[in-house]
Amino acid sequence: MGEGGMVTTAHEEYAAKVRSLRSHAMTSVTWDRHRGHAESYDIVDVGFNYRMDEPRAALGLSRLPRLDADLEARRAGVRTYRQLLADVPGVELPWTDEDVERATHFAFCILLPDRGTRDAVRDALAADGIQTTWYPSLTYFTEYESHGRRPVSEETADRHVALPLSASMVPGDIETVVERLRVALA
């Protein structure tokens, strides 16, 4: 749905919190005041401007009927990656089969031996037209430096790579990524 997304919950307390945070954590929004439901407002938390516009709402609603199938397609892709990468030297799969069945998977992450290997693999895959990414440890960002070092988080961030994954990928696409990964690691 572009930036942002949709939150669904059966818990009224969570729903109220999300509704508040999406609009600057204001106790009443402009439309409520315009309709006479409130005269003023307060800001009761650190909120955001996450109000969804109509085109994104329509897109989200149109995707809901496909949600279960899209999630299952991503899980199937993850299962394929796990099967094809299970015996690749230098590749560590960070999650269990049970984890796969509970997650929604926006990418497929693997752990490589070290940062140098990760960078070399990413460069080789990029040369083959395969997009990857990695995410630094939060402790590397200025806002979180004061919280101290987190050696396990930092070590994991330095050696992980996120491989492409989408609901539209077929096993042949994943086989190509894994084949090129094997070549990059050789």
Structure description:
There is one protein chain. The protein has 186 residues and is mainly α. Helix content is 49%, strand content 4%. It has helices spanning 12-21, 30-34, 54-63, 67-85, 97-102, 115-127, 142-145, 151-159, 171-185, and strands at residues 108-111, 160-163. A two-stranded antiparallel ribbon has the order 1-2. Helix 4 (67-85) packs parallel to helix 9 and helix 6 crosses helix 9. The protein is globular, with a radius of gyration of 21 Å. The chain starts with 11 loop residues before the first helix and ends with a helix.
Short characterization:
The chain is mainly alpha-helical and 186 residues long. It has helices at residues 12-21, 30-34, 54-63, 67-85, 97-102, 115-127, 142-145, 151-159, 171-185, and strands at residues 108-111, 160-163.
Total strands: the figure is 2
Through-space gap between termini: 39 Å
Strands ordered across the widest β-sheet: 1-2
Provide the low-confidence segments as ranges: none
Roughly what fraction of the amino acids lie in strands?
A: under 5%
Main beta-sheet annotation: 2 strands, antiparallel
DSSP helical segment count: 9
Helix content: 40-55%
- Given the helix and strand composition, which structural class is it? mainly alpha
